[in-house]
Design goal:
This protein is mainly α. It has seven helices and three strands; from the N terminus they run ααβααααββα. It has a single domain, classed as de novo design (two linked rop proteins) (Up-down Bundle).
């Protein structure tokens, strides 16, 4: 899979982000995207082939694998990366709309089209809420699908066509568990960064609005 489009998206968003937003971009790019491409993808590359059960009953191994791993960890991680980065497109599109509007009217309508204020502030806040919500949804999804974040060494399966309880062994469980913990840690860090940025912007512009209103009353 090519991740160039995601890299370009994150680079574009970085122009219009606050300081905390730039840290979020760095975390997603360096500690999630690069780790995924450089290491994690290879670890789960042959997960089905390396899943072994102590029986050769036709279909048993496939059914057990599908039961314990309904969605591949690595594919779900890739989907999470894409989904949590997508809301940032709202900000890019809004800035592009402002720039296009200025070209259409052939005059300067904004001091800086990329400045977070007015309608762009609302779009930015919505993107932060969506990113935070998606991070939480995927963490819950990971936990529910796999009964936690730890990869077991052995699973017991008694689903048909298996004739009895079968022991199945998962390859590299310790290594996979470490990467899953890393995934959870980086997701939690991104949630904290998003909430911090959201709180900062709401506080900053609430104070700004209050002072502006107070000045008008004094006048």
């Amino acid at each position: 899979m090519s991740w160039v489009f995601l890299r370009d998206l994150l680079s574009g968003v970085n122009k219009y982000s606050t300081g905390t937003g730039r840290i979020w971009v760095a975390v997603v790019f360096m500690f999630r995207l690069l780790v995924y491409v450089a290491a994690a993808e290879n670890i789960w590359k042959r997960e089905h082939d390396e899943f072994e059960c102590n029986i050769k009953q036709p279909g048993c191994e496939n059914v057990c694998f599908d039961h314990f791993f309904p969605v591949s960890h690595i594919r779900l991680w890739a989907l999470q990366l894409i989904m949590v980065s997508t809301p940032s497109l709202l900000v890019v599109f809004h800035v592009a709309y402002r720039e296009n509007r200025e070209k259409h009217h052939n005059q300067k309508l904004y001091k800086n089209p990329g400045k977070i204020d007015g309608g762009l502030l609302c779009t930015y806040l919505i993107s932060l809420i969506l990113k935070t919500g998606l991070e939480i949804v995927f963490l819950v999804l990971f936990y529910k699908l796999y009964n936690g974040f730890k990869i077991p060494r052995l699973v017991k399966c008694d689903i048909k066509p298996c004739p009895n309880t079968v022991h199945c062994y998962i390859s590299k469980p310790t290594e996979k568990t470490i990467f899953l913990y890393f995934l959870v840690a980086t997701s939690c860090l991104c949630i904290v960064l998003n909430l911090a940025e959201l709180s900062y912007l709401v506080f900053k512009y609430s104070i700004k609005y209050y002072l502006k209103r107070h000045v008008k009353k004094q006048q």
